[in-house]
Amino acid sequence: MWVINPRMSMPGLKRLNAILTESFGADRTNHLSQSWTCERAVQAMHVLPLNCPFINVNKTNEIYLLKRSISVCPALHAHKNLCLSQGRIACANVLSDLYAMGITECDNMLMLLSVSQKMNEKDREKVMPLMIRGFRDAAEEGGTSVTGGQTVINPWIIVGGVASVVCQPNEFIMPDGAVPGDVLVLTKPLGTQVAVNAHQWLDQPERWNKIKLVVTREEVKEAYQEAMFSMATLNRTAAGLMHKFQAHAATDVTGFGLLGHANNLAMQQRSDVAFVIHNLPIIAKMTAISKAYGNAFRLLQGLSAETSGGLLVCLPREQAAKFCAEMKTHSSGAQGASGGAWIIGIVEKGERSARIIEKPRIIEVPKRGSLAAHQENSATAELSTNLS
User: Fold this and answer.
1) Would you say residue 40 has pLDDT above 50?
2) What's the Cα-to-Cα distance from 332 to each of 327, 329, 376, 377, rounded to whole Å?
3) Do 55 and 65 meet the contact criterion of CB atoms below 8 Å apart?
4) Does 247 score more than 80 pLDDT?
5) Which residues contact 312 (CB under 8 A, 6 or more apart)?
6) CB contact burial 75-96 (16+ within 10 A = b; e otherwise)
7) What per-residue confidence (pLDDT) applies to 370?
8) Given pLDDT bands bounded at 50, 70 and 90, which one contains residue 329?
9) pTM across the whole model
10) What angle do CA 250, 166, 163 make, to 5 degrees?
11) InterPro entries under this entry (predicted)?
12) Beta carbons within 10 angstroms of residue 139's beta carbon
């Protein structure tokens, strides 16, 4: 069931309803568990300040409901593929909170859509169906489907969703089990915010002039494509491998940047630990751009926001290289370097905090399919022996 803004004009309402019906079918309804809407269940909710709130549905610690809602405000361009990508990215971002707890199956998916009141009818009819299609395609790739949602009118385009699953305790990994000696692995490169902004600056001479001495226009376009690909890639493979290689904890890296989410994860651990980050895998040329622009993004400090970033996973030392190798195997085709994994740090005894060493190693992640990407993939496992 789609919930529509009652203030929308009748012609706009009819047209939007037609778009939704065409995209999802007239008979699609939203079937939410009664336990989620039940007041007692909400009061019993155990909310972690990371990833997914979860509810003990039957009070016996046998069945849990995990649910997450996220919305993003995309930077839209009028190109068909980019509109599709924005929908995919939003869906991937929503699902990542389930994946960060090792859950690979989503039972129910809702789409949250804000239609910009500043768009004319022609642009609206062109853009919105493409975004819906991209969101729906990513949901299907994740093994689920969109059963409904909510649509409103807003000054901005906003797209997001709600992902929920009912599961048993052995199907998810609590994000609190890291121990000293574990290794930190990141499954997507950093720098998406820098890449997207740099691409916009191609048409803004004042800003482009600040970075043109360190990067070419072609390199910016390549980095933008890598960022779009990375953001649209699901973290589902990594979620499955978390079980295979006995992951102790994980979180997804999004708006608070690598260090922000690492700190948040460290604070949740049962053991007295500290996360020490030695390596930063970054989309090629984004380090140079960040420095040339006055470090405004704070990329090397781990504070640059990411959208639909990778998983930061705590793994036993003996399993980390195997995890990375299998991620590379899964990503050797369509995903390329952007779908790999990098060993970036270690877990030490400490006071539940995270830090990046003074001079971290910068791993420039090249474009997919290049010789450099192949060489970079082959060298990743060696990093585990070089961490101090």
Assistant:
1) no
2) 9, 5, 12, 9
3) yes
4) yes
5) 184, 185, 186, 250, 251, 252, 253, 258, 261, 262, 265
6) ebeeeeebbbbbbbbbbbbbbb
7) 57
8) confident
9) 0.82
10) 65
11) PurM-like_C_dom (IPR010918), PurM-like_C_sf (IPR036676), PurM-like_N (IPR016188), PurM-like_N_sf (IPR036921), SPS/SelD (IPR004536)
12) 26
Residue 105 tokens read as 């199956």
Name the DSSP class of 52: -
DSSP label at 339?
A: G
pLDDT tens, residue by residue, 55-103:
666 666 677 777 666 666 655 454 557 888 999 999 999 999 999 999 9
Alpha-carbon distance of 125 to 15, in angstroms, equals 8
8-state DSSP, 79? -
> Which pair of structure tokens corresponds to residue 27?
């008979």
Residue 137 binned pLDDT confidence (cut-offs 50, 70, 90): very high
* Mean pLDDT of the 213-237 span: 96
Q: Which residues pair with 163 in a beta bridge?
A: 68, 109
Kindly state the DSSP code that residue 190 receives in the 8-state scheme: B
Whole-angstrom distance, CA of residue 271 vs CA of residue 26: 51
**What is the SS3 assignment for 89?**
helix
Which domains, ranges and CATH numbers included, belong to the chain?
2-171 (3.30.1330.10), 183-385 (3.90.650.10)
State the Cα–Cα distance between residues 310 and 368, nearest whole angstrom. Answer: 17
